[in-house]
Specification:
- By secondary structure, this protein is an all-alpha fold.
- The protein is built from eleven helices and no strands.
- The protein has two domains: 48 residues, Arc Repressor Mutant, subunit A (Orthogonal Bundle), CATH 1.10.10; 147 residues, Tetracycline Repressor, domain 2 (Orthogonal Bundle).
- The relative contact order is 0.08.
Length: 255
Amino acid sequence: MAKAGRPAKWQRDPEGMRLRILAAAKNEFAAYGLAGARVDRIAAEAGANKRMLYYHVGNKEDLYLAVLEGAYEAIRVEERTLNLEHLDPPEAIERLISFTWNYFIRNPEFLALLNTENLERAAHLKRSTKVKSMHSPFVEMIRTVVTRGVARGDFLVAMDPVQLYISIAALCFFYLSNSATLSVIFGRNLLSQEAKDERLEHVVGLVLAALTGKPSSRSAMPGPAKAGSPNLGSPKSSSPKKKTAKPGALTTPVA
């Protein structure tokens, strides 16, 4: 009687194969979007074949949704490690902003996936039975921080936690996802380390100023505008009107 052959590697480690498929799919969907992604490329990168892919995850749209859910789960899991409830409210908000900013920088594929799904009008996310439940604890975490801040007198505004997070994410997301065009338009390298550090300081200053009602120097202009550049940071009233000297009058040069 012939001995049964050894099970294939993917059969011995089905969860490992599934994870490799999802990792390959994340790269593919981030690079090419849903329409441009190819199942054969995903299978090849994962060291699988199409049959194995369909067995472990499903068709292309099922695979895309699994990747999307995994992307949201990854950021929510890391957010739970921030321990915001143990920090003073202003420090907690600053840590949340810093985490969001740096997570977006470290995970550009997450931004690409969000862009793709928004182009799809969230058609696939609407099918998810997981994503909404992931976000409820996160919203409550922010609500608790804001409520504590108001009770302690740190914050003047009991801001809606959903609106607050959308504002934080938007201030980070727009800058990074549009950095190529904005760099050309404004003649700056917005992805230099100095520019990224300056942006993070600016976002922290803006959000804390909105919550505390106190202006923050962190979001102020870093220095005087260069010659020929409009001074966008100075109100009109801050510059005294230039007086016109009368004919024959002595004038004192300004240093």
